[in-house]
Amino acid sequence: MGQGEAERVCLWEDGLRECVLGIVGTGTGFAALAALAEERDLEEFLPPMRLAGVACTHEQADSRGLVRRGVPFHPTWQDLLAAHPEVTMLVDLREERLGLTDLRAALPPHVSLIDRQAAVFLCALHNMHRAGAHTRSRLGHSQAMLDAVVTQIREDILLLDLKGRVLDMNPHVYQRTGQPKASLQGLPCWQVQTLARGVPFCPEPCADCPVQTTLRTERKAEARMTRVSPGGELLYFRVYSYPIFDERGDMAQVMVMRRDITARTRLERERQQAEKLSVVGEMSMYLAHEIRNPLCAIGGFINALGRSPNLDAADREKVEIILAETRRLDAMLTSVLNFARPAAPGGSDADATVLMHDAAELMRIGYAGQGFTFCVQADPGLPRAACDPDRLKQCLVNLLKNAMEAMPGGGEIALRALRMDDMVALEVRDQGRGMTPRELDQAFSPFHSSKAGGYGLGLAMIRKIMDEAGGDVRIASTQGQGTTVTLLVPAVLSLAWSPSPAPDILDDTLPLAPGPGARTIAGGTDD
Known about the structure:
The protein is of the alpha/beta class. It has 18 helices and 16 strands.
C-alpha cells in the first residue's frame, strides 16, 4: 500500500472536517467524552470535535457542571437535535437500553449513533491519550535533563557502534573540529577525536585503546593517555569506554568519555614532588652528619698523601682520581643540601629586565666562541617581580645552560620579559632537539635527569624557587622544534611603583629575532 493510499484511509481526509457531538444521558464515560470533545491535541489522529449539547435533566446537568461551563442541555434527545441540527454524531450513555431501536430509526441520515457499548472505545482513546501525554511529558523532561547534562559536561562523549564508528556525540566533540555533526557521524572514532585547533587525538588506530578493549571483552575499560598540545605543552587525559547492552543482554553500542585531567595531574605531581622534597630534607640532615664529616677527613688525608714525595706517577694518578671523586661527591651533597634547605624569608624584589640582560651577558662571557647568540626582548613598563634577585637570576642561568646543552652546535637563544595579568613572565626559548612526552612528564621530578652525570635537580630547584615566591613555571616543547620555559613571578603591587630603566648595555626592547632596531649578544665576539 503506497503512502497516498494509506492517507486516504482516514475518513476526515475525504471531506469530514468536523464532528459535532451530541450526548444523551450523563452515565459512565460522560466525563471522558466531554474531555475528548475539548481536547485539541487529538486533532492529529481524529477530526476536530465539538460538543453541541447534552440531553439530560436539570439535576444531571448541575451535577456534571454543564450549567457552570455553559454547555446547552435539553430535556430529550429530540429537543437536542431540534436545537442543534448541525449534530453529526449522537452518543447514547443512558443506563437503560429501552428506546435505542426507536432512537436509531428516528435519526436523520447524516447523524451517526454510538451506543453505550461502542462508546467505551472513545473513552479508551481518551485514556490512552492522557497516558501518552504523561509519558511524553516525562520523556521530555528526561530528554531535557539528559541534553543539559551531555551538553554542559566538559568531557567529550561519543556513542559508537560495534565497529567503532561514531553514531552520536556531544557538542564539545564536533565544535572543536570545526565541522558539522552530520559530517562526522559514521567515521571511525579515532578520526573524530581531536585536541585544540583540530589536531588529531589519535594519529592512527590503536589496538590497545579502551574502545578496542571494550569491543573485545564487552567490559568497561579505561586508560590514562598523554598528548602534546599544538603549543608544546604536555596534556593528560583519562579515557573511559562503557559497553551498552540491549534488552536481550547483547552489547549493542559503546559509549566513550574522554576527560582532560591535565590540571589535576599537575597538582598531583606537585604534591608528589613536595613529598619527595620532604624526604630529601630528612635525608640531608643524615647526610650532613654521617657522610660529610668522614668525607672531609678523606679529602684531607688524600690532599696530604698527594703532597708526599714518595709517590710514583701511577700512585699519584690514583690519588688524583680519588680526590676528584671526593670533590664530585661533595658537590653532589652540596646540591642536595641546597635543594632541601628552605629559602630564607625576605622582602626583596627584582627588575626582570635587568636580570635577563645580566644573565645573557654572563653566559656570553662564559661561553664566548661556542656559536651561541642571545636575543633579549623586554616589554616596556614592566612591574618589578616579587622574588629574590639572586634566586631569580639563578633560575635564568640554569635555564640558559639547559638551552645551550640542547643545542650542542650553537644557535640562537631567545629571552623575553612580559606581563601576564598580575604576573611577570620570563621566557627562555631554544631551538634544540625538544623533549619527548616522557621527558616532559618527568621534567620537574627531583633526581630525574636525561643528561649523563646530571643530578636531576635543575628544573626541580627552579620549581621550588617559583613555588616559594608564589609563582609558577611552565614548560612547552616539541621534538625537533625546541623548548620554551616560562617563569611566572608575582608582580610587586605598589602605588608608588615606576618601571626601572633598561641597562646601558642593551636597548630597552630587543625583538626575539634579529631585525631592524634589534641587538643581539653573540657568544662569538668579546667587545
